[in-house]
Amino acid sequence: MQTTAHITFISAGAGSGKTHRLTEILHQELLDQQVQPSGVIATTFTRKAAAELRERVRSHLLKQGQINLATAMGQARIGTVNSICGQLLERFAFEAGMPPEQRVLEENQAALLLNKAVDRVLDGERLDNLLAVARRLGLEDTYQQGDFANTNWRDELRKLLNQLRTNDIDLELSRGFATQNADDMLKHFPKPTKTDLSGELLHSIPEVLALLQAANSDKKNTEGYIALLTRFQYELQHDNARWSDWAKLAKEAPEAKLKPLVTTLSETIGRYAEHPDLHRDIRAYLEQVFGLAIDVLKVYEHSKREFGVLDFADQEHALLKLLDNPAVAQVLEDELDLIMVDEFQDTSPMQLAIFLKLSRFAKKVYWVGDIKQAIYGFRGSDCALMQAILKALPDMGGKKEVLPHSWRSRTELVELANDVFNKAFANSLETKDVELIPTRTDQLPGPAFANWVLDGKNAELQVNALAEGIGQLLASRYQVFDKTCQEARAVRLGDITVLCYSHSNVAKVTAALATLGIPCSTAQPGLLATAEATLALACLRRLNDPADTLATAQIISLTETEGPESWVAERLRYLNAGHPKAQWRELSLGEYSQHPLVAAVAQLRTDLPVLTPVEALQRLIAECDLPTRVSAWSTSTALAQKRLANLDALIDLAQQYEDLCRNGLGAASISGLLLWLDEIANAKNDALATPALDAVQVMTHHASKGLEWPVVILMDLARDISDRLWSVSAQSNSAFDPHKPLHDRFIRYWPWPLGKQKTVPLSETFEQTAIGLACRAEAVEEAKRLLYVSMTRARDLLVIARSSRKITGEWLDTVQAPWLMTPPGLSTLKLPNGKKLRADCQTLTASDSPVPVAVIEQNLHWFAPVQVIQSRLPLGFQPSNGGARASTAGRNTCRIGTRIAFQGSPEMSALGTAIHASLCLSFTDPNCPLTLDEVQDLLQSHAVHEHVNASQVIAQQLALHAWIESHWPAAKAMAEYPVQQLLRSGQVLNGRIDLLLDTKDGWVLIDHKSNPAPEAQWRRLAEEHAGQLDAYAQAIEAASGRPVIAAWLFLPVAAGAIQVF
Q: Helix crossing, 932-941 with 950-967: angle to 10°?
C-alpha cells in the first residue's frame, strides 16, 4: 500500500473554471491511457454536477473519435459522495457483511424515522423533566418561525444527533460529554453560593411590592416592574422561575425616586449566576439532552434494522470501516487509478476521513475546492479540520495548484473582489489564493457596481424602494452580456437575483415585490397553501371520503364565483329536504344541480381500490382538467406556468411519500398521503415550484453558492454576526493526525441559560474566554467567506442595497472596506489600488403611487377541449341501466316468514349488509345452520344489534330455505355467485348474484332486498330491479348455455317475495 499519495489540491476561486478543469483532467488522463474508466472515482456535490461532468468528458472523447473510451465512461464511478459509498459497499458487500442490494433512505425519509425515534424515547416523566428544565433555561420550543424563533432544545437535539452521526463518535464514549461540557462551562461561572437566594427573595418581595404599590405611580416603567416582579414571585413560589426573569429583573428598575426601595432586592437577584439551582439546571439539562440523543440513536438504529434500510451516515460509517479490510484495500490498490473530489471544502468530517483513506490506494488524487467558499459550518462541515488537512498536505506527498483566471465576471467586478478580499483574507491566505486575473474582453456601457441606499422608515417601504431601483434598471435598458448569444442585450427580470440573509426575509421581499407587480421566483415553502394545491387536494379528499363535505365546499369556492353565503344557504336547504348528506353537488336532485368537478371526482371512485396515491392524484388532475382551471386564474403566462409547475410539484411530493412507504415505513394510502402532507406543510418542507420564468429570483446568500446571474443585489449586509459559542459544534481535542482525522473528536455544547437576555455581565465574561474569542473569530471568518460567495455571483452588475436607517453593520464591516460605502450622487468608486470604477450610487425612495414594472403580457393559451362526436360508454356496465325482458308469468307474490320488526331507526344500508351476510352464510353448509350467537355477532359488527332481534333474522333464513324447498325441490343453491360478461358494446358486466338455484329445468335467480316496503309497493321494486336481474340472466345463459327460468326478489324484512320474470 502507498504510504504517500499523489495528491493535488486545486484551489478554485469563484468563476475560475473549476468544472472545466475537472473535465480537462479526466479527459486528458483517459486519452493518455494513464487511467481506465473503471478505475475512476469522482465525487460531486450534486447529482446534476455528476451528470454534467460525465457528459462533458464523454462529449470531448467523442469529438476526438475515442468511441470506445466514450462508451466505457459508463464504468466510471461518478456521483455524489453517498452514491459512491453505495457503489463501493455493493461491490464489497460480502466483506462488509451487508446485502448486495441496499435500500438507502433519502434525507427527508431519514429525518422522519429519526423524529419517530425521538417520540418513542421521549415520553412520560422523562419528557416532563426535560420540558421543565428547558423552560427554566429559556430553551423551550415556542414553535415560532422566522424572526421570532428562539434557540430551543428540539433544534439543539437535532444538531447534536447530526454531529454524533457525522463525526463517527462512539455513543458510549459520548455519555461523558455532558459532564465535560458542564464542567468546562461552569468553571466560568461564579462559585455556587451557600446563601439561600430564593428564600431571601420570597421573604423580601412581598414587602417591596407593597411599598411600590403604595406609591400609586402611573409611570410605565414602574408599572412594568411591578408586573414583572409579581409574576416572578409566583414562579419562584412554584420553583419554576425562568433564569431569564432573574437576569431581566436584575437590569430593570422602577422610576428613579422608587429605586432605593429595590436596591437590596436587585443586588440579591443580580447574584443569579451564583445560584446553585442554576448550576444544577445546566448540568441536568446537558445530562438529559446527551442521554436522550444517545437513546434516540439506538432506537433509530433498531428501526433501520427492522425495516432493512440504511441512511447516508450509515453508508459512510460502513465504508470507513470497510477500507481497513486488507482484502478490500488490496483490490482497490490494484484497481484505483484516479480519485477526484469536487467541492472539497464542503465535505463532512466523516467524508474527509473517507477521502483520506481512499487517497492511499489511488495512483493520482485531485481535490478541488476553495477555502474561501466554506460556508456550511451550520450543516456540520468543519473548516478547521479541512484547513488542518491542507496544512498537512506537503507531508503527505501532495501539492497545491491554483486556478488563476476568472471566466465569470467582467473586469471591474474581478478587480473589486480582489481589492476587497485580498485584505479581508490576509490573515489566513496568500495573495495568489485570493486574487484572480480577469479574462472577459467584452465591453459593457453601464457601471459594474451600484450602491443603493433604500430610504424608508420601515422594511416595507425599503423593499418598495428596491422595486423602484429594479424598475429603473429595466427602464434604462441596462446592458448585460448574453452568454448564449455572445452579445450585449437589455436586462430582463430573469437576469436579476436578490440575495437575503434569512428565509423569513426572502419571503418578505418576495411578497413585497409581487405586490408591486414584479414577478418573482423563489424556492420557499408554501406549496400546499397555494390555490392550485388546495383545489387538487380537496378533490383528492373528496375522492377518498365522499362524506368530506368540507372538501366539496373548497371545490365550489375555488371553481365558482358564488360566495360562501350562497352555497352555505343551499347546503342547509338541501339537508333540510332530507337528501343524502354525502351526495350534495355530486348528483342532480330536484332543484339541486350537480357540480361538474364533484361529479367527475365521483366517477373516479369506482377505480379507487386499484389506484396508488400518486395515480389517484394524477388521474384527478387530468380527468378533472385542473390545468385548464388553474390557468384561467392567471393574468400572465408566468403566473400560469407557476401554477402548472406547482401541480407537478404536488405530484412529486406524493411520489416522495410512496418512496417512503416503499422503504418499509408503512403501506401507502390516500389517507396516509394527506396526513403526511400536513406534516410536510407544518415542517415548512413544501417548497414552491421554481419554473424557468422571466422573473426576479429571490434566495438566501447561502443558497446562491455555485450559481451566477448577470445582476445580483445584496441585502441584509448590516446584520450582526452570530457565533456558535452557545450552540452544538464538533472539535478535535488533540493534534490533527492525517491518518486518523476523526481521532479524539468531541461534541461541545454550552446551552445559553438566560433565554433572550443576551446583554448581561455573564455573556461578556464568556465572550472573553479562549473559547468565546475562538468562536467569535471563526464566525467572523465564516461571515467573510459568505460575503465572498455573495459578491462573486454577479457577471455584469453587483448592487449593494443598504437601509438608510442602518448603513453598515457587523457583517459588512468584517471585510474592512469602508470605501465600498460611497455616498449617493457619486458616479465612481475608488479602489484602494488607485483605480476608479464607474458606479451607480443613489438613494432610492419608494414612489407614493408606484407604477408596476412593465411586464410583457401574452395571450394565455391552453389545449382546446376534445370535440367528442359521440359520448363514450363507461367501461363498466351498470346492470340497473339495462332493459328488462317481458314477464311471462305475471308478478307473482309470496308471503315468506314473519316481518322483521325494528327498534328505533337503524342505518338501512348497514342493516341490509348485515341481513344479506347472514343469508349468504346460511347457504355455506346446510348441515350446519347458523347459531343465534353467530347472527348476534354479525349484527353487532354492523352496529345494528340494538335495532334488530337476531332470532327474527334466523327465522327468516329458515323460512327462505323452506320456501325454496317447496318450489324447487332438490335444487342446488349457490350464494354470492360471481358473474362477468363482455357485452357487444365493448362494456364489461361485473356483478354477484345473491342466490343462484340450479334446477333440472334451468336457473333461478334470487336477489335479496332489505326494503321494508308494504306489499302494495312490491311491484314497483320488481320493475326497478328488472334490468339488473335480466342482465345477470343473459350473462348466466351465455356462459352456461342453459335458460334462466325465473327471477325473484326476496324481501326478508317485508316477509315476502315477488317474481320479476
A: 110
